[in-house]
């Protein structure tokens, strides 16, 4: 009783509005700054790294959302490994629209850890 129901009409937007397209270069600046800020003094500890990855993912998502990319679904992945001279390869595959979808990546290294962060942005029609 007394509840208001909002009805939304379809927008039929097949492409991002001008000024709202995902800009890889701008997001990579955010990633570099966040990784530097959050990890420069961190020492690798296997028990703490899962929580650190989750916190970084949340921080990255929040900052990228503030950039105003409308109708993009964001997928964020952060991997932190101990720096012991080993190599690291990260691969991913997905179906997307190369005109509208994109990704940004950044990495960080200090004396004890190596971090790779990736943000995938898929336009939601």
Helix content: 25-40%
Judged by helices, strands and strand pairing, the structural class is: alpha+beta
Strand order across the largest sheet: 1-3-2
What does the average pLDDT come to? 92
Overall morphology: elongated
User: Biggest β-sheet: count, sense, barrel?
Assistant: 3 strands, antiparallel
Poorly predicted parts: none
The value of Rg in angstroms is 18 Å
Q: Give the end-to-end Cα distance, rounded to a whole number of Å.
A: 34 Å
Characterize the quaternary organization of these chains: single chain
Strand fraction band? 15-25%
> How many strands in all?
3
SS field, number of helical segments: 2
Quick structural summary:
By secondary structure, this protein is of the alpha+beta class.
Indicate the topology:
Blueprint: H1 24-39, H2 46-66, E1 72-82, E2 102-109, E3 113-123
Helix pairs in contact: 1-2
Would you mind describing this structure in some detail?
The model has no long low-confidence stretch (mean pLDDT 92). The protein has 125 residues and is α+β, with helices and mostly antiparallel strands. The longest helix has 21 residues, at 46-66. The protein is built from two helices and three strands; from the N terminus they run ααβββ. It is 30% helix and 24% strand. β2 and β3 form a beta hairpin. A three-stranded antiparallel beta sheet has the order 1-3-2.
Which labels suit this protein?
125 residues, alpha+beta, 24% strand
């Amino acid at each position: 009783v007394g509840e208001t129901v909002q009805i939304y009409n379809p927008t039929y937007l097949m492409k991002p509005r001008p000024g709202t397209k995902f800009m890889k270069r701008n997001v990579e600046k955010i990633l570099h700054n966040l990784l530097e800020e959050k990890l420069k003094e961190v020492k690798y500890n296997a028990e703490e790294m899962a929580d650190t990855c989750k916190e970084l993912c949340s921080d990255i998502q929040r900052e990228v959302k503030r950039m105003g990319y409308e109708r993009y679904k964001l997928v964020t992945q952060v991997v932190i490994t101990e720096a012991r001279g080993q190599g690291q390869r990260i691969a991913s595959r997905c179906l997307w629209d190369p005109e509208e979808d994109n990704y940004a990546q950044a990495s960080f290294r200090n004396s004890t850890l190596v971090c790779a962060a990736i943000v995938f942005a898929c336009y939601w029609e």
